[in-house]
Amino acid sequence: MPWSNQNGGGPWGGGKNQGPWGQGPNRPRGGGNTPPDLDEIIRRGQDRLKNVLPGGFNSGVALLIAVLAVGFWLTQAVYTVQPDERGVESVFGKPKDSVAEPGLHFMFWPVETVELVNVTEQQQKIGASGTGQQGEGLMLTGDQNVVNVQFSLLFSVTDPRAYLYNVAEPGKTLAQVADSVMREVVGRRPAQDIFRDNRQAIAQEVKDHIQLTIDNYHAGIAVNTVSIEDVSPPREVSSAFDEVQRAEQDEDKMIEQANQYANKVRGEANGEAAQIREKAAAYKNQVVKEAEGEAQRFLAVYEQYKKAPEITRKRIYLETMEKVLQNSKKVITDSTAANNGVLPILPLNDLAKPTDKGATK
């Protein structure tokens, strides 16, 4: 149905060319296109809102404000604790004894407040370049050398309540304690220990002292690991220090070579000594065995001698003469022919020699 058939009213039922709020449109005066009055439009909107809300416009605004206030309060009163966190609630600034575990929790804000603490393992770098002022890691060793020590420690929060309320700035306090303990330990040792020889033992000693000090503060922190990442001389003396290091390396190399040569010579000497000892033992065994054999032979002869003394004596005499005359010159003469003025001689040694002709043959 066209709007013109509804008593000349618009779509909201106003008649006689009236508008939606019961009044006719403000027609422009004159022949120009004058824009509508803004104050009039706002006033009409307020009147329309009064008809919709029972208490009028002021009650609607109050209700909206109340809803927003309740929503804001809920966002502050309800909080979530993540798996790597723990929450510590406090009433008027006094912490509760209980600790909020991971999950959704509720508190009466603003009477109660909560602080969340990360309880997973965290890393703290000390003396590293770019993390502090210049020269922060410079330390004096026990032999009056200056070294630049950069180290880190891994720690975790074991008591969130003590971590938040027993120490004002736990992270800064931990860094200061670690730096102080490292300076104390390095100051009692020579530079060689911190550079190469005993770095692991120094890190363990520093960890134990840090934990002892932090426990005295009741900070609720557990130091898991201390790692010495870099030890270097100051920049001003780095070239001289490198020269010293190279000289020490050459010294170690020469000492190692000398030890190898000494081990080689010692091994050869030990081998020769063992060989001489073996030969002496073999000779000793040989002499002993020969002596024992001679003794056994003498005893055997003696047994035979007791049975037949004359025969045995003659046999011994003959065997002895055979050995004595075996390599001596032998000449046989006939004593009976001496009466005739003739001395017959039989040179047995000359007869035994081969003649030249026999040698040629």
Automatic annotation (TrEMBL):
The keyword Amino-acid biosynthesis does not apply. Residues 1-40 are annotated as: Disordered. Pfam families: Band_7, HflK_N. It is a single-pass membrane protein. Keywords: Coiled coil, Hydrolase, Membrane, Protease, Transmembrane, Transmembrane helix. It is found in: Membrane. GO terms for cellular component: membrane. Gene3D superfamilies: Band 7 domain. GO terms for biological process: proteolysis. Residues 76-245 form the Band domain. Belongs to the band 7/mec-2 family. HflK subfamily. HflC and HflK may interact to form a multimeric complex. This is Protein HflK. The lineage of its organism: Bacteria, Pseudomonadati, Pseudomonadota, Alphaproteobacteria, Hyphomicrobiales. The gene is hflK.
